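Question: Hello, beginner here. Any chance you could explain the protein record under this note? Any guidance would be welcome.
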Amino acid sequence: MKKTNFDSYIEQQLQDPEFAARFNRAGEAWDVALQITDLRRQAGLSQKELAKLLKTSQQQISRLESPGYEGHSLSMLRRVAEALHARVRVVFEADVEQPGLHVAEGSVPFRAKRSRVSST
């Protein structure tokens, strides 16, 4: 697939260690956008072609792939993943920079079963 001007710009900017550090901390929305873009490109699809598969607009795919967009719904991410033969996995991790908060210290087993409380 042809390299875009944005791809070239990012490659150039990543040569600057300060920019690279900020880029790496940019957040979850960036991660989601870049993963969707990468999966779509690996599948050899344009935004328009993916939109057609999902019965949505090319503009919606563009929003999903935008690093600044934070309106991803789990249902849309699942639809995208299914179309691109992937799966969605959400992981919550403890924030090591907030040592006073101890809510998420231990890892939670993936798909943990909920215990049912008897009402007797």
Remarks:
- The helical segments are 5-13, 17-24, 28-42, 47-54, 58-64, 74-83.
- The first helix runs from residue 5 to 13.
- The radius of gyration is 19 Å.
